[in-house]
Amino acid sequence: MLAYILRRLMLVIPTLFGIMVINFFIVQAAPGGPVEQMISQIQGTAIGATERFSGSASGGEIAQGGQVSTSGDAGAYRGARGLPRELIQRIEKMYGFDKPAYERFGLMLKSYITFDFGESFFRNRRVVDLIIEKMPVSISLGLWTTLLVYFVSIPLGIAKAVRDGSQFDLSTSTILIVLHAIPGFLFALLLVVLFAGGSYFKWFPLRGLVSDDWSTLDLASKALDYAWHMALPIGAMVIGGFTTLTFLTKNSFLEEIHKQYVLTARAKGLTERRVLYGHVFRNAMLIVVAGFPAAFIGVLFTGSLLIEVIFTLDGLGLLGFEAALNRDYPIMFGTLYFFGLIGLVMGILGDVMYTVVDPRIDFESRS
Length: 367
Prior knowledge:
The chain is mainly α. The protein has 17 helices and no strands. It has two domains: 34-114, no CATH class; 128-366, MetI-like (MetI-like fold). The protein is globular. It starts with a helix and ends with a helix. Mean pLDDT is 78; it is low at 45-75.
């Protein structure tokens, strides 16, 4: 197994390189890059924008010669007519666009090896600091949502499999399908209206991960305050998350229950509980439990944007969305590299989970 893990770790490098190459050149080809973003700001707010632009450059090197002109070669950028070519060149140099794309890509990868993601174009802060600052919100939403979905869906799926075709099975299936049809953001708005001071009760807060005085509280009060803030966002995220995992668990158990080894175990006089959890569980739960890392990654990186906006939670989803709108390349590529690396490592962890759930699986012999 160790040799298999080492081979998978070696594959992380070319896979991550391919991810970065594809995304880098796709993004570079898209219109509206950071240079054009700054040009639009200058054109839209004249001298005020130029002053803001001058202040954002290191060393104030853009301050001189940065005024809007009515003549000059503005280059190939859209909306750049009326700006002197010298100003465009300073903007390009500030964002690194005075170098060809392949050279910028090489410099980027060289820095990323040491997890130096550079500084945000429009936030004037290091990308690493921004990721660390936003990470607690996203981890809180992703981890607790995934755990809650698993803790509810697995027992419910087993109960549905044992009672297949019963009134319990049919009624719970109906409820799950209805919940699955409700978009998470709509349910979040409903929770805000009902319980966060929208129109009825004000039982839960509508802002932040913890209260402002959280640092002064004792350990138990900190945990309660954290749970108080997380209750509504997590409730909104899990509302439609039970359906797929519950039916997957049920179908996995149904498939195993009718196999010969289960009939043999029952014929030996084993109790139904021993048959289910001593024999069926290990085989039926293989794909369910081993999929936990991938499920966590999916919730962490794709499912929280609207929830963060509605509940005023400043996490990675909102950070990535704003970076994409502003063409803030350091944040875009820095988070892509970081999360891509985490996703690949989680894929390896998923394979390890297979062997934990069922030691009979041997990836080494398969290789």
